[in-house]
């Protein structure tokens, strides 16, 4: 990709000599600007990444300095403890919540929304061992279920299935699960019709927190509020937490400064960041954005399906590289491939 871009730039230069000089200059400036705004990274190929992970093997040593450093960095930038959810404390009546995924849209906390917020951060802090589960197909046949279930606090993304066929690989306990409003729309008819299916489906997460980006984009708000009411009206054991857009925004800036240039971070990276800020130890499972596994066989995108993401938004390999650096420095542990018995 790197090479093709340079090649294209070269071709453009040759053609430029025949064209008017001023046009050429303008084009060159444009190209330079392009490279300035979107610098070309040499991202490793899938094969290189597989080799690198295999080379590292099971060698991993916890690095308390790294853990403390990242907790401090994240606390300073983003205050996960106080800000990760919208609470009555950080969002009183009249507070303007700026949507982090859109320009110039905001929600002013009012009569109707304020009562839906939890009082303050409800998590049982400090969290000890946390497991963050990405949903990559690499989890298939990983036998990581028991490992995962042993953690003190287990975070999952986007209402993943936890049916019998998967339990051995992904475990069954959950303490916090994110729900993308688009899934409410797709899977549950936006909760405009029956809410029973939704409520029944949520039982698999027992008494977890459901974490929804209600104030990230305008179309997210209504489905999130509807999900809140569906749970509240059926005295479900789940507790709805709305992601605080200020927190999400500060995390985006944090990672942008560390070479992740996605339009929007993946849910997985938000959760890992939250865990790094709140937990004493973090293990990440199922983070593998590549289409081949350690045995070089194809890996599906999710452990439960192979629907590809909207790649315009996320830059998963960039994110993976950052997590891999944290793994190598002992700040968190990534489990890729099979878990030891
Ligand atoms: C431990 O983490 C610190 C901070 O990130 C880093 O500077 C150091 O090199 C790490 N130590 C090892 C052995 O990787
Ligand atoms: C709150 O709601 C009540 C009725 O539900 C309304 O009369 C009142 O004006 C509202 N207050 C504010 C500050 O919006
Ligand atoms: C909530 O949890 C209690 C205790 O585990 C259980 O008996 C009850 O059935 C649960 N309620 C719902 C709606 O799932």
From TrEMBL:
- CDD domains of this UniProt entry? GT29_ST8SIA1
Q: Which UniProt keywords apply?
A: Disulfide bond, Glycoprotein, Glycosyltransferase, Golgi apparatus, Lipid metabolism, Membrane, Signal-anchor, Sphingolipid metabolism, Transferase, Transmembrane, Transmembrane helix
Q: What is this entry's stated membrane topology? A: Single-pass type II membrane protein
The protein's location, in the record's own words, is: Golgi apparatus membrane
Q: List where the protein spans the membrane.
A: 21-41
Q: Which reaction does it catalyse?
A: a ganglioside GD3 (d18:1(4E)) + CMP-N-acetyl-beta-neuraminate = a ganglioside GT3 (d18:1(4E)) + CMP + H(+); a ganglioside GT1b (d18:1(4E)) + CMP-N-acetyl-beta-neuraminate = a ganglioside GQ1b (d18:1(4E)) + CMP + H(+); an N-acetyl-alpha-neuraminyl-(2->3)-beta-D-galactosyl derivative + CMP-N-acetyl-beta-neuraminate = an N-acetyl-alpha-neuraminyl-(2->8)-N-acetyl-alpha-neuraminyl-(2->3)-beta-D-galactosyl derivative + CMP + H(+); a ganglioside GD3 + CMP-N-acetyl-beta-neuraminate = a ganglioside GT3 + CMP + H(+)
Q: Which cysteines are joined by disulfide bonds?
A: 130-279
Pfam family, any one: Glyco_transf_29
User: Which major enzyme category is it?
Assistant: transferase
List GO terms (cellular component aspect): Golgi membrane
Q: Which domain of life is it from?
A: Eukaryota
User: Where does this protein chiefly localize?
Assistant: Golgi
Give the metabolic or biological pathway: Protein modification; protein glycosylation; Lipid metabolism; sphingolipid metabolism; Sphingolipid metabolism
Q: Which GO terms describe its biological process?
A: N-glycan processing; oligosaccharide metabolic process; sphingolipid metabolic process
Quote one Gene Ontology molecular function term.
Answer: alpha-N-acetylneuraminate alpha-2,8-sialyltransferase activity
EC number assigned by the record: 2.4.3.8
Indicate the family of this protein: Belongs to the glycosyltransferase 29 family.
PANTHER family the UniProt entry points to: ALPHA-2,8-SIALYLTRANSFERASE, ALPHA-N-ACETYLNEURAMINIDE ALPHA-2,8-SIALYLTRANSFERASE
Question: What is the protein name for this chain?
Answer: Alpha-N-acetylneuraminide alpha-2,8-sialyltransferase
Taxon lineage? Eukaryota, Metazoa, Chordata, Craniata, Vertebrata
């Amino acid at each position: 990709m790197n090479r093709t871009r340079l090649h294209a730039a070269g071709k453009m230069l040759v053609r430029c000599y025949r064209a008017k000089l001023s046009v050429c200059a303008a084009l060159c400036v444009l190209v330079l600007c392009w490279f300035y705004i979107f610098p070309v990274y040499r991202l490793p190929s899938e094969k290189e990444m597989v080799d690198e992970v295999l080379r590292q093997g099971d060698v991993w040593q916890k690095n308390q300095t790294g853990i403390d450093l990242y907790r401090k960095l994240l606390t300073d930038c983003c205050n996960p403890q106080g800000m990760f959810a919208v609470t009555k404390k950080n969002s009183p009546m009249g507070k303007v919540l700026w949507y982090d995924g859109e320009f110039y849209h905001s929600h002013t906390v009012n009569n109707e929304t304020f009562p839906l917020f939890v009082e303050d951060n409800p998590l049982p802090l400090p969290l000890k061992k946390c497991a963050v589960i990405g949903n990559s197909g690499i989890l298939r046949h990983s036998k990581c279920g028991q490992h995962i279930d042993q953690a003190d606090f287990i975070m999952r993304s986007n209402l993943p299935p936890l049916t019998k066929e998967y339990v051995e690989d992904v475990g069954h306990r959950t303490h916090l699960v994110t729900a993308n409003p688009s899934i409410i729309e797709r899977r549950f008819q936006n909760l405009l019709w029956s809410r029973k299916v939704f409520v029944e489906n949520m039982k698999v997460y027992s008494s977890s927190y459901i974490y929804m980006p209600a104030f990230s984009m305008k179309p997210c708000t209504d489905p999130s509020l509807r999900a809140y009411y569906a749970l509240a009206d059926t005295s479900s054991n789940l507790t709805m937490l709305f992601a605080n857009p200020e927190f999400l925004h500060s995390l985006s800036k944090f990672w942008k400064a560390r070479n992740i240039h996605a339009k929007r971070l993946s849910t997985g990276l938000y959760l890992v960041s939250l865990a790094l800020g709140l937990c004493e130890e973090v293990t990440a499972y199922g983070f593998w954005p590549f289409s081949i596994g350690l045995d070089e066989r194809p890996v599906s995108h999710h452990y439960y399906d192979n629907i590809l993401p909207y790649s315009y938004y996320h830059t998963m390999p960039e994110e993976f590289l950052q997590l891999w650096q944290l793994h190598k420095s002992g700040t968190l542990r990534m489990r890729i491939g099979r878990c030891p018995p």
